[in-house]
User: Which sequence fits this backbone?
């Protein structure tokens, strides 16, 4: 006779009439004014407060991911805001829906590859296999390449140097560098580690699991999208964007 599964529980938060408790810590006595937003985010997700070095690197990654110009997520936010200015949250939500496998969300794909490489018996051999699989399938390797930043993405250079200076760079960064060597060799040319590749490795070395990393991209980009909505409030650009799109994609008649 099978037993019933245990009732569901949560380890995140509870409250009393006098206080709120997050991960077993008093919000009023231990957290408000005592920890930063970055530290609180890490605590909320993992159950522990990050070290100063981990805090510095998670914060650096969030800063890096916040803004990247008029990319699809920012355009989506501006478009929806122009249509429904009474609902800022809808505009931001629309932009967050554009965090995917092509923009911003590639941090998750790269992190999964790094976990695979680290789980193999030989890092270099597995990195080469990953590169060969992507080359054979005609797919870009998540975390590599950039249409503008060549030969190297300046953001990844800064982030990886900072991780080394903070003493955070470890197995995931080593796996990323092994993958970078394999990508260059297999594709027959230098392909830069981009910002999401560096962030995937750094957040992995900060103890964050691959399956949650897109959440950090969403968290950072959310703040950036609020900025785009605010600019649209005071310096609206959507009419110019709309007209430019009509010029760039003219009607060619019914076919």
Assistant:
């Amino acid at each position: 006779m099978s037993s019933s599964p245990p009732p569901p529980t949560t380890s995140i938060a509870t409250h009393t009439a006098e206080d709120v408790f997050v991960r077993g810590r008093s919000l009023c006595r231990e957290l408000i004014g005592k920890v930063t937003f970055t530290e609180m985010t890490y605590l909320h997700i993992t159950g522990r407060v990050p070290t100063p070095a981990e805090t510095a690197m998670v914060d650096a990654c969030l800063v890096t991911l916040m803004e990247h110009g008029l990319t699809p997520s920012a355009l989506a936010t501006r478009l929806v805001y122009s249509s429904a200015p009474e609902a800022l949250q809808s505009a931001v939500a629309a932009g967050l829906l554009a965090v995917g496998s092509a923009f911003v969300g590639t941090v998750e794909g790269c992190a999964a590859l790094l976990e695979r490489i680290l789980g193999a018996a030989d890092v270099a051999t597995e990195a080469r296999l990953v590169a060969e699989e992507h080359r054979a399938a005609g797919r870009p390797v998540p975390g590599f390449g950039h249409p503008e930043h060549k030969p190297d993405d300046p953001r990844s250079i800064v982030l990886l140097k900072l991780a080394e200076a903070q003493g955070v760079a470890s197995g995931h960064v080593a796996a990323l560098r092994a993958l970078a060597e394999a990508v260059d060799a297999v594709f027959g040319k230098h392909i830069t580690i981009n910002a999401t590749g560096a962030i995937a490795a750094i957040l992995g070395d900060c103890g964050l699991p691959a399956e949650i990393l897109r959440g950090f991209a969403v968290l950072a980009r959310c703040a950036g999208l609020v900025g785009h909505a605010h600019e649209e409030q005071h310096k609206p650009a959507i009419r110019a964007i709309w007209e430019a799109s009509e010029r760039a994609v003219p009607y060619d008649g019914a076919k």
